[in-house]
Amino acid sequence: MTVDSTVATEIRSDIANPALAAEGKKRIEWAGRNMPVLAQIRERFEREKPFTGTRIAACMHVTTETANLMLALKAGGAEIALCASNPLSTQDDTAAALVHEYGISVFARNAVDRDGYYSHLNAALDIKPDFVFDDGCDLVNTLHTTRTELLAGIQGGCEETTTGVIRLSQMAKDGALKFPMIAVNDTDTKHMFDNRFGTGQSTWDAIFRATNSLIAGSTVVVAGFGYCGKGVAERAKGMGADVIITEIDPTKALDALMQGYRVMPGVEAAKIGDFFVTVTGNRDVIRDEHFAVMKDGAILANSGHFDIEIDVAWLEQNAKQKNAKIRHQTDEYVLSDGRRILLVAEGRLVNLGAAEGHPASVMDMSFSDQALTAEWLLKAAAGLGAGLHEVPTVIDKEVARLKLESMGASIDTLTPAQELYLNSWEHGS
User: Fold this and answer.
1) In the chain, what's the furthest Cα-to-Cα distance?
2) Which of 97, 145, 151, 326 could form a Cys-Cys staple with 24, CB 3.0–4.6 A?
3) CA distance 252 to 270
4) Exposed, middle or buried, 370 (CB in 10 Å: 0-12/13-18/19+)?
5) Are the C-beta atoms of 68 and 50 separated by less than 8 Å?
6) Which domain holds residue 252?
7) What is the sign of the dihedral through the CA atoms of 77, 399, 164 and 316?
8) Rounded Cα–Cα distance for residues 378 and 156 (Å)
9) Does residue 38 sit in the same domain as residue 172?
10) E strand residue ranges, 305-381
11) Helix (H) or strand (E) holding 143
12) How many Å apart are CA 13 and CA 212, to the nearest integer?
């Protein structure tokens, strides 16, 4: 591993190109302008230094928005080691700027291979962290499998993705999780806005950049109708697509049906879809039985965290021809009967693999949740048992209040009589 020490002797890194640092700084500053809530938190952290003496290892998408979170934590006194949570999401100029302009240890290169990915996770853990930030649970998984010697020193951590929360929930259910993890993903100001509006916009941004295809008049199949699926479906419907939802949850399927979407099994939808977007957090959501009936030219993209929602391995093994990168981040697989299937961003998280991810203004809320939860966790961790815990409601509401304020909006407050009424059972109708 390359060790980069031009900023300070304690700063370590494995990045693609240090010469990109100045460009990365410009983009980090641009994102920061659209993150006013996090900026306020950073200013307070700089004054109060709540994280002095604290080591944080973070496995997150190395983007300009994440950079602003790292800068807020550093302003609060934290020592940070950041690695990438997805090989295609790393912005090499952002990684360079964090190392050479801001003095933060970063281990991230765009398109790194599997061995490099895990070597970066381990490099971040070499800091012997007190707390961990995770996007997808890979850092936590590594701690519980190959770096168990570090477990005793971990006080707690935060998880920001639906996929990661699913994995952590199972670990907690099995009694395997050895320290408290906070489900930042499940705050209203995260999943209602980041997952829905962020994923909805950035997913289609990526597909358009990669394929330059017209969505109006087409048939779009969205696999999964959680908050991310809702966002993807809403944006597609708003741009004139006929949207089909596939689901395994009857309540979510009913919700989709009552919102005006068609609902059907995946194998039926596969016959008529032009675009397919997976947002489930599961594996093999689109697989051989679906490929077998798809139209020639079907476009596939994944907005779930890992690259196993679409069975890319089957395509690699069974296509008679692969035309790699026929467009920006788009591979074409030619099947034995001549039908072509187009896969965007290698089946990895499409909005970061083929575009820049969510707009900074929506990540402002998610990363403000992260920052304030980390501060709360400093004091609360000792009293929390190992397992998965929720973010205190007061943090979620404060982030929402600050975001409203930054957008020039205000809301009503309860009168004393209303507050008494809501908090008493003795008043009748």
Assistant:
1) 74
2) 97
3) 20
4) buried
5) no
6) 198-353
7) negative
8) 9
9) yes
10) 321-327, 330-334, 340-344
11) helix 138-145
12) 36
- CA nearest neighbour of 189 among 58, 350, 422, 373: 373
pTM given for the model: 0.91
Contacts of 342 (CB under 8 A, 6+ apart): 211, 297, 298, 299, 300, 326, 330, 331, 332, 333
Backbone angles phi, psi at 180, to 5 degrees: -75, 135
Structural domain contains residue 158: yes
Does residue 39 sit in the same domain as residue 170? yes
Cα–Cα distance for residue pair 361/189, rounded to 1 Å: 12
Looking at the structure, tell me whether residues 334 and 204 fall in a common domain.
Answer: yes
Identify the band that residue 306 occupies on the pLDDT scale cut at 50, 70 and 90: confident
Cα–Cα distance, 120 to 59 (Å, whole number) = 9
Residue 152 burial (C-beta neighbours within 10 Å; 0-12, 13-18, 19+)? exposed
Write the single-letter amino acid at 32. Answer: G
Rounded distance between C-alpha atoms, residue 302 and residue 285, angstroms: 10
Token pair belonging to 126: 């070499």
Judge contact between 244 and 271, C-beta under 8 A.
Answer: no
Residue 390 and residue 182 in contact, taking contact as beta carbons nearer than 8 Å:
yes
Let me know whether 57 and 37 are in one domain. yes
Dihedral of alpha carbons 136, 59, 277, 348, sign: negative
Residue 70 and residue 45: Cα distance in Å, rounded? 12
CA distance 220 to 301: 11
340 and 204 within one domain: yes
Query: What's the pLDDT tens digit per position in 397-413?
Result: 999 999 999 999 999 99
Check the CA dihedral 246-252-253-257 and report its sign. negative
CATH code, domain with 322: 3.40.50.720
Model confidence over 278-305: pLDDT tens digits? 999 899 999 999 999 999 999 999 999 8
Beta bridge partners of 249: none
| Strands (DSSP E) found in 38-184 | 55-60, 79-84, 105-107, 131-134, 156-159, 180-183
